[in-house]
Amino acid sequence: MRSFRSHRFVQAPEILSGAAVVGLSFFMACVLGCSKQEDIREQALFAQYGGSESCKDCHAEEFRQWAESNHGLAERFVEPVMDEPAFNPARAFKHGTQSSSVNWSNDTAVVTSVGLSHQPEIRAVARVIGNAPLRQFLIPFPGGRFQTLEASYDPRSNQWFNVNGEDDRQPGEWGHWTGRGANWNFMCASCHNTRLQKNYDEATDSYHTTMAEMTVGCEACHGPLRAHNEWQKKFGKSGAKDPTLAKLNHQQVLDNCGECHSRRAELTGDFQPGDDFLDQYDLDMVDGSELYYADGQIREEDYEYASFLGSRMHASGVYCLNCHNPHTAKIRLPGNWICLQCHGGGNTNAPAIDPVAHSHHKVRGYSADGKLIEADLTKYNSKAFPETGGECVNCHMPQTPYMQRHWRRDHGFTSPDPLLTKELGLPNACNRCHPDKSVDWTLEATQKWYGTNMDRVLGARRERTRTIALARTGDPAAIAPLLKLLAGNEPPYWRAAIVNQLEPWPANPEVQAGLLKSLGDTNALVRTKAAHVLDATAQPLNAAVISALRSRLADPVRSVRVAAAWSLRGELDLHSRAGEELNYFLDENADEPAGQMQKGEFFVGRNDLTNALTHYRKAVTWDTQSAPIHRELALTCNLLGQGSNALEELMEAVRLNPRDSEYRYELALALNGEGDLTATVAELETAVQLNPKHAQAWYNLGLARERKHDPAGALAALEHAGKIEPDDPLIPYVQATILSQLGRTAEARDAVERALQLQPDFAAARNLSLQLGR
């Protein structure tokens, strides 16, 4: 066993001495320079920490478990015993159009990979992040940066691989290992270290990142312990209660794990144990995007926290440490025994489940007739009882691979539902394990085994999923069922998710009424999402909603205050508490293109287009391959009267994402502004092909076709628009004008009458009606 030592940022990486490769001298300067630049606050902050080594004498077994765990090995310097086997003997591997090679030289791990020069560059590895099932490697860069190589190592198979898979990322791209998408300071550091201070300086675009301890140390979960150490030295044998320790409750433990096991935006960059998650982060969860599946299953790299919040386990009071050993981070019991802690019949709050009868699969440790034949847990992993399909987690916590080698279980504790696979294309655990079988085969099996129980148990969740899936298509028919769900008995996580689905329709009076109620919800996550959706700079809101948003500026939870401040940014007092918190959030995330994009949007909301343009241009420079950034830059150029620049940026957005109907629609408007009517019609036709429910695209296509002397095509397009937006008086009014020009007076009268029924004070429609003889 290797010797364990404290991983302090102020320690120099002794293994790198003498390595004559790119980046070495800079790395040393950064480490020492960062130590000198720690301000008074950080010195006082880090003085509260004792380091994990200080726990070893009194908590030897816990320390040993932690030191060998993925938390204890989350980040470290290169160590010969652990790392030389990955680099020696030297080897090379190909990924996409590129290749990388590794070797061990003078006790230094060396990687040769294509860098910013577009040529192979020799780099010394400064640190290792991660342990099992994969390890990544940090390279020092100018400006206090560390970059994470895409060349990664799997210690189980002794293989090198590209963490980006078949995605052939090139130098200059955001996601290449030299780009900001692989920047350790922003992307990795806070979750691989203890009490990290990122310390980004936007003016110089540089970092002097520091931390209390390298890796996820004891104090990452327990908080600062120097006072505890000192008290124990003085009074530890007295039998008195240690006043320096505060035990975390279950929610605080969950939030502490969620700090790193979630996909979220940083509000402060300074979480510590005991903090409320929503005082520190804005949580990514089920929304209108494809981040999660409509039923809550993880899709992208979503981690565990959010899906667990939406689970029945969380609703029943289960929390992380019921299943996980806090020091090893491994499961407390093997196989189904972990689930049978509660579902074995002794827990009155959980239904008793017979694993064999319930799963209809063989279960490890049981005979085919369901009799327990091996209860000795020391023999549980023997070859006589291999893993089978009867493991609870294989059905209720299906796995998805991320980073090519890391299989992660979905903590939503969902139930396989092949019916929704057939209806909506959602994955189910049965066909994940049986990819050679059809969905109909799976449906037949579940119907045979469970009959009407599937409808009884999953019925309400199915309706919620169907409604969310409908909302994601942009269909206004989803509004009524969404509001019904919101007014029902959904748990907090799902109320927040339903609020997210209402984002396309915040100007709808009924939607505003539902969101107004959600602004006063007892759950802070619901209030946060409602404040986000009710963006006062994006659409007109009634006075009651504006007043409610203003009241949320004083909400007791920071994520709610920041969300409300964002939605009221057009009128916000930046010197108020919420105003300062919003500015802090924007500055905290200003080192990434998305953060610069947010700053651009902030200044657009305050009608400061010059500053907005500056931030959008910086965002585009940092990520040239992002269609949304090009689009936002284009819209700002348009507002500034820079039509040709707007057209250029929209064309680039369409090139990068040709399947986005909104980009096509906006490009059509820009082309129309430049007088290119033929191209305008072509883009609008593409937009409605991509999204047949895009009412504005159909409406403008009608206008454009009319200008091209195609009245039949114009009327057809307007007919589509009217079916999608039956309450818009402009559509029948334009239909009436075209019909009138064609001499179809009776039809024109009917159309203009519909417009006046929808808007009785519509002056232009009234005049046309008089001209037509009504």
The averaged pLDDT comes out at 91
Radius of gyration: 30 Å
- Whole-Å distance between the termini? 94 Å
Biggest β-sheet strands, sense, barrel: 4 strands, antiparallel
* Overall 3D shape: globular
Q: Quaternary status of these chains?
A: single chain
Number of strands: 18
| Largest sheet: spatial strand order | 1-6-7-8
Q: Which structural class do you get from the secondary structure elements?
A: alpha+beta
Binned strand content: 5-15%
Low-pLDDT segments: 1-35, 375-385
Helix count from the secondary structure assignment: 38
| Helical fraction | 40-55%
Describe the structure.
- This protein is α+β, with helices and mostly antiparallel strands.
- Helices cover 47% and strands 9% of the residues.
- It has 38 helices and 18 strands.
- A four-stranded antiparallel β-sheet has the order 1-6-7-8. Strands 2-3-4-5 form a four-stranded antiparallel β-sheet.
